[in-house]
Amino acid sequence: MVPLDAPATLRQRELFDALTSLTGKRIDSKSVVANDEMLKFTLDGDAAAIGLLPSPIPWPQIEGPCETARWWPEASAKLRGHTSHLIVAISSDGKSDVLQRAVNLTHLVAAVAAHVESAGVFWGGGGLVHDPRVFVEEAQKASRDNLPLHLWIDFRIEQMEEGTVRLFTTGMKSLGRMEIEIPHSHRLPTEVFDFAYAIADYMLSRGAEIRDNHTVGRSDDEKVMARHAPSMFDERMTVVRLEF
Question: In which domain, by residue range, is 55 found?
Fold first, then answer.
């Protein structure tokens, strides 16, 4: 979703030109259906839609993501006063690649955010908010071979009372993989983040399945035990628990 500071009028030709520059694919004009509130078209074989809602995203839905957006300290101040928002979506019959679809959605959101008075970007799959200018810049680098995990996945690190840290992800599930959790680690937060990011990239970029009670690492020498276990937050959800 793209929160707006002012009502938006989509400039269809400019939007499609920007999208083509990001994806390398032209939009078939025969697939376009448009009215004052909705724009629909086909993107890379999937159904894309942009819809205007004349109301803000409910604050309880984005308050938490704003408070935890360490990469965008101004998030709460920028988004609290937005007045309306655009829903940006791509739907599929299930045959297209989920990661390519996420890349296409990233490009579409970036094209939209660059052509309206956007207050920010809310990536629902990971519960993340982003500065629209940064999102647009990062989207330009995104491809199936260069997945922008930091735009899609919240790698949340929390300091624990006993002097350890824990990490958990939000957003892996929406990409077809189990979430990652490190319940406690004595390592530095940056080390924990870097390790979890590398494992997430391994799972997604290579389509790798991490098996229960096997080790995983970034090199032949690094062997970290991985288990399929109930989440720290919802025992009904199975996650990849790493002993790092």
Answer: 2-146
